[in-house]
Design a protein that fits this description.
alpha+beta, 8 strands, globular
Length: 203
């Protein structure tokens, strides 16, 4: 699974170019978006909820997730208007990192508003990840695929853009297989995230 991905040909894109290209392809007539999220520690500077989380203000961080409600709702309306099915698979390592603990509260809001998110325990794919982690990718139909990049500090740093249709199909098949193995979001959240104490954070 994902065997061809490491040797795929790509174009390196900085963040502004990646975002512009993503929007162009997204609105070009694709019918699905698949996102595979693998990293366990990121920084989301400028997102008020993340800033509060990073400052150790857990309750405030959770309340501030609601500031994204209208943004997310508009995103899902746009997807429906364009006929795009969006799916996300979130791989989670144990013990759960503070970032992922926080992020799943954000994802819970997205699910509430209609996002299709499943969660996969990283221990269940240890056989697949013997040589390397599964890729951090966003797949737009069969047109473009982006390996999302981050710097050593966890900040977004652009993407590698792939357009080889065969590679996109192979990676999409891997996503589909893992998505089917994932847990229902609410089942996972209620079992693994809701019982956790607020995390100790030092950013």
């Amino acid at each position: 699974m994902f065997d061809s991905f490491p040797s795929g040909t790509f174009e390196r894109m900085e963040r502004p170019a990646y975002h512009a290209d993503f929007r162009r392809v997204y609105e070009s007539g694709i019918h699905h978006l698949n996102k595979l999220e693998r990293g366990q520690n990121f920084k989301e500077r400028g997102f008020a909820s993340w800033e509060a989380f990073a400052a150790g203000e857990w309750n405030r961080a959770l309340s501030l997730t609601q500031e994204k409600r209208d943004v997310y709702a508009r995103q899902f309306r746009d997807a429906a208007r364009l006929g795009i099915l969006e799916r996300r698979l979130r791989v989670v390592e144990f013990p759960v990192t503070p970032y992922v603990q926080w992020e799943l509260y954000v994802l819970r809001l997205r699910v509430e508003l209609g996002d299709n998110i499943r969660v996969l325990d990283a221990r269940e794919i240890s056989d697949i990840e013997k040589d390397r982690p599964v890729p951090e990718v966003v797949i737009l139909g069969d047109v473009a695929m982006y390996e999302v990049l981050y710097d050593d500090d966890g900040n977004a740093a652009g993407a590698n853009r792939f357009t080889d249709r065969a590679l996109i199909r192979e990676t999409s098949a891997g996503f589909d297989a893992l998505y089917e193995r994932g847990d229902d979001f609410h089942d996972f959240f209620d079992r693994e995230i809701a019982p956790l104490a607020p995390p100790a954070v030092a950013y």
